[in-house]
Please model this.
Amino acid sequence: MSGNKEVLVEVKNVDITFGSGKKIFRAVTNASFNIYKGETFALVGESGSGKTTIARAIIRLNNTSAGEILFKGKKINGKLSKEDRTWVQRNIQMIFQDPAASLNERATIDYCISEGLYNFHLYKDEADRQRKVDDALNAVGLLPEHKSRYPHEFSGGQRQRVGIARAMIMEPEFIIADEPISALDVSIRAQVLNLMNKFKDERGLTYMFIAHDLSVVRYFADRIAVIHNGRIVEVAPALDLFRYPIHPYTQSLLQAVPMPDPKIEKAKQLKVYDNSVEEESADDGALTEIIPGHYIFMNEKQRSGFEAKLKEMKELEKNQ
Model:
């Protein structure tokens, strides 16, 4: 999947399980994907599909039971030396879903943003730390005088900006954004996405963006992976995924996006995903390239059916 692009994060055949013995629960099964330097890679699926579980494994909050996670070519799952753990924490940051829960309510905004600077001693002296905090606040559209306030004094959108400032001040290479706009008002969502895009362009950041709504990532992501029941079922460039949603689960996710035109919305036929498609390929299936850069989880028996579906979509596109 790498081509001539630089792979920043590589997830290879990763399994994540919880519990043990008879009570073992497999949350993620054989997940594999690459994230290229400078891109926004979206991981999309319904609640409980394993999106956040994978993200937390990348930042070492969840253990993996099989497979490898590589960052800049270095294995980062499993046991690491203290130096390597520090290196991962320094270079991979996370923006959390709930800005209220992810900030310490008893700490000032100054401390919330400075926590990483304190932990890794990333400042020369107090004046340098203050300057870095002021710059981080200005960058996200907040004022330096906000430093002495507490998180509960801010709106949801402002708190999320504090969360972004806290991540950015570490100058990471890779940021995982776990549904960063789902708790926000619709009017604020675009502002937060635009802010994240601005940082991506200015600082050459790489994002992994987690969402349950495909319409959110349509214009924000470069590539999209669709996950269902802990298994990656489709990976494609964003435009390709919307033009040719081949896997039935991707089709059902897309169909769930409400249309602004009430006539079109009313005429829509409800597509209910049938799990048997996935179960049929569970034992001998693999992510297979069906057209350049577009991967579907399938076995050899299913290939002809998926290829026929793709051909049908292309014919339909021609005739429109």
